[in-house]
Amino acid sequence: MTEIVSDAHPETLELTVLGPRTPALAGAPVEAFRVLHKDSGGRSGVWECTPGRFASARNGDTELMYFLAGAGTITTDDGQVHDIGPGVVLVAPDGWRGTWDIRETVRKVYTIWTTARDQ
Predict the structure, then answer these.
(1) Over the Cα atoms of the chain, what is R_g?
(2) Contact indicator for 62, 95 with CB cutoff of 8 Å
(3) How far is Cα of residue 95 from the mean position of the Cα atoms in its chain?
(4) Beta strand 61-76 with 97-114: parallel, antiparallel or unpaired?
(5) pLDDT tens per residue, the chain (119 residues)?
(6) Cα dihedral 53/55/61/64 (nearest 10)
(7) Which domains are present in the chain?
(8) Cβ partners under 8 Å of residue 84, min gap 6
(9) Taking the model in full, what pTM does it have?
């Protein structure tokens, strides 16, 4: 599925509310998204989440994130803390695990692609 969005800005693009991010570790984070492209190799779009804390993991894919708005931190399972906010780019490789702590609603543009496994 590919959607051509003309004259749209990811900062103001209308998103579909997915619902509560579960399980939340703190607060009541709610996710919203809009997929702009999807095929067998991956997907790209815009994602937003309200304040709260939750665990996340990449299993079988890698994600590139470019943050447009918001504030928070992402802490990897090995203890590295990454501040997130406008202009920040992060890559979460296959096998990554960590915890998001969102203080102000975060919006990002993302691309997720399937990671080739060693044979």
Answers:
(1) 14
(2) no
(3) 15
(4) antiparallel
(5) 556 665 678 999 999 999 999 899 999 999 999 998 899 999 999 999 999 999 999 999 999 999 999 999 999 999 999 999 999 999 999 999 999 999 999 999 999 999 876 53
(6) 30
(7) 16-114 (2.60.120.10)
(8) 67, 70, 71, 72, 73, 74, 90, 106
(9) 0.90
